[in-house]
Amino acid sequence: MGSIFIQNSRAVSDTAVPDLFIDNYMPQANGEFVKIYLYLLRSLHQPEGEISLSSLADVFSCTEKDIMRALRYWEKNGLLRLSLEGKDLTGIEFLPVRDGREHPEPKPATAGSSGRLPRLSAGRVQELQKNNEDIRQLLFLAEQYLGRTLSSTDVNRILYFYDGLHFPMDLIEYLIEYCVSKGSTSLHYIEKVGLQWHQEGISSVAEAKARTSVWNKNYFSILKAFGIRSRNPIPAETEYMNRWLKEYGFTMDLITEACTRTITQTGQPSFQYAEGILSSWKRAKVCTLEDVRRLDTEHRNSQKPLSPARPARTQTASRFNNFHQREYDYRQLEKQLFEKQLAD
């Protein structure tokens, strides 16, 4: 993979982040995508002005596909222009940050929010369905997958993927098929999954399949580390695993080690206990198993040495034996008692 030449079409002399980027683009974007964009801004001022996908992947401890997904996201939003030779990325051009976007994107679901996408107007829904055989076919397939007749609200929510998020028809169909295969026919769940794909820059069925394949493998690897087999993860478990893999950015060997320690300490699988271990490692900036061993050594060294053992007593005093022990001749006592009886 060759180097990538970064061209600057913006008049800046330092690594300045435009207010428009912070106001209009950053709140809706995936956090990893924001970090990659900011790092590229900084890279403009490197003397050679060249980087590579592999070097970016090393910096962010991710794959080159993850880097490309972020770049495509910013290209789609009009902030970058990518130059390709075949499948090889050869150039990245920064474009001026506009005041507002042509297709504003919904804010991602956050903890405590409904996570629902905006709705299309009734007129727009009718316009999309009118004389559009592809959309009618999509809605028919959705009814087959979900096993029910779609309500007007259902239709609105599905069409927003097409008109609001600009998903291709086959990607929407695969989204519904994937969620149903996971055991959920809830439009709310389908929305959450689709929004997550959108935030990750997924724009094709191939990318979605690659993403779900990797994540499913990781899910079941973690369940296996907990000794859980023959079932799918429940939503609460998936939330924990997503945090460990995506937010914390831990590798599978670190997560597996935390699962092993959880079983050793508690005797049972506990995602909450493992979360305590992994969150502490995140605060300690743990990146490898070697870092874990270093922390273990530091913890052992910080423990106070045990007090030297006291010499064992040959006989422990108590209220029952803290007096002078007398010795009796039981034969003599028996003889004396017999003589006394004869005298009487």
UniProtKB/TrEMBL annotation:
SUPFAM superfamilies: DnaD domain-like. It comes from the Bacteria. Pfam families: DnaB_2. Residues 140-211, 231-293 form the DnaB/C C-terminal domain. Residues 97-117, 297-318 are annotated as: Disordered. Residues 97-106 have a biased composition (Basic and acidic residues). Belongs to the DnaB/DnaD family. This is DnaD domain protein.
